[in-house]
Specification:
The protein is an all-alpha fold and 133 residues long. The chain has one domain. It has 4 helices and no strands.
Length: 133
């Protein structure tokens, strides 16, 4: 059962990672959709020329936008990989559970067979004992 515990821990970690990646994806999407946030990404330019901060829309944000879009594509790729690994973990868990179910069914069959044999031996003994009295 140590392997099942490790699998469960891995599955929980994968869910947590998937949630974090989804949050990062949403954050990048919000930044890409908001022009003011895009302009505020130019920290060096704003620091060098504080007067530019009052007129944020005066410069172009294509560089920052293209960088964020590349990061967003990387995040989509990472999220896809995490989803595939999570799917593999769930498939492995299902296979292990099927094997455990098979073993349980085999043990139930053995138990039923032994109970049947015990009953077959006990009933004639009871009949002989009842007539012997």
């Amino acid at each position: 059962m140590g392997d099942m515990e490790a699998l469960r821990t891995l599955k929980n970690n994968m869910h947590e990672l998937n949630t974090q990646i989804s949050g990062m994806r949403r954050m990048l999407m919000e930044i890409l959709e908001n022009d003011e946030d895009m302009h505020m990404l130019y920290l060096s330019k704003i620091h060098a020329e504080p007067a530019i901060a009052s007129d944020l829309l005066s410069f172009d944000t294509e560089d920052a936008e293209s960088l964020l879009e590349v990061y967003l594509q990387d995040i989509y790729a990472t999220q896809t990989r995490v989803s595939l690994m999570l799917n593999n973990v769930q498939n492995t868990e299902s296979m292990v559970m099927l094997r455990l179910d098979t073993k349980r069914n085999y043990l139930l069959t053995v138990d039923l067979t032994l109970t049947l044999w015990t009953t077959m031996i006990t009933v004639p003994t009871f009949i002989v004992g009842a007539f012997g009295m």
